Amino acid sequence: KISNKLTFEINSSQAVIASMIVPHSTLLSIRTEISLLFLAKPDSGTYLIAATNGANSYAYTGQVTGKDYGGYTSVTISGDEIATKPDAALEVTVKVTDGKFSMYDGNKYLCLNSSDNKLHFNASEQVVWVLDANGKINITTYNSRYLKFNATSGQERFACYSSAQKDAYLYKKGDGSSTSYTDYSLDCGTTKTPSLKVDKTAFDFGTL
Asked: Which of 4, 68, 155, 186 is disulfide-compatible with 118, CB 3.0–4.6 A?
C-alpha cells in the first residue's frame, strides 16, 4: 500500500486535509475512498458576532462598562444571513496570523486572561482565537472554552464557557457597499467518500 496526505486550499478560506490509501494496482484505473475533513479558517475582514437562542438572536455590542463580559442587542438572522446590522452592534475586525486570529471591536481586543466564565479586553493585539471544525469560536489560551451567549434571564451576555450556553458564530460582511453579513461557519467535520481515479500522473477527483 502507498499512504499519502494531501493539503490544499479552496477559495482561500477552506482547508481540506485528506488521508489517501491507494492499493497496489494498475495506475490506469484505481478506485479508493478518501476521508475529507473540512476545517474552518476565517479570512481577515469585518464581522459581526452573533448567537441564536430558539426564535431569538443576539449580536455582540462590546464590553459592558466595568464588567468582564460583552453586551448584546437583538438581531434578525434569516437563514444564514444578517441583512442589516443593528445600530448597537459592534463590528469586529478579524486579523489572521499563523493560523490564529485576533478580534478587535473598535475599542479593545477580545481575549481571556483566566479560566473563568468571562470575556476580557486588551488594548494590545491578542492573537488567541481559532475556529474549530464546526466554526465555533475557540479561545486557545484556555482551549476548553468557547465564546458563547448566556441566554439565562438576568444573565444575558457574551463570555467564554466550557459547556452549555449558546454558541456564537462569526458573520462576515459582504464585499464593497454590501450591508449584509453571512454566517462564516462551515459544514465541517463530515466525512465524504468520493471516487479517486489515478490516470498515470493525473488525479481526477470528480465532484466532491
From this structure: 68
Distances (CA, A) of 138 to 1, 112, 162, 181: 37, 11, 10, 20
DSSP tag of 78: B
- Take residue 61 and report the three cell numbers written for it: 455590542
The grid coordinates listed for 109 are: 481586543
Mean pLDDT of 42-62: 96
pLDDT one-digit tens code per residue, 142-193? 999 999 999 999 999 999 999 999 999 999 999 888 899 999 985 444 443 4
CA distance 46 to 44: 7
The CA distance from 50 to 89, in Å, is 9
Strand order of the β-sheet with 34-40 is 2-10, 14-22, 34-40
Burial of 149 (0-12, 13-18, 19+ CB in 10 A): buried
Measuring CA to CA, which residue among 48, 60, 35 is closest to residue 183? Answer: 48
Q: Are strands 92-97 and 100-104 parallel, antiparallel or unpaired?
A: antiparallel
Residue pair 89/60 in contact by the 8 Å Cβ criterion? yes
Which residues have C-beta within 8 Å of that of residue 155, sequence separation ≥ 6? none
- Summarize pLDDT for 59-71 with one digit per residue, the tens: 999 999 999 999 9
DSSP 66: T
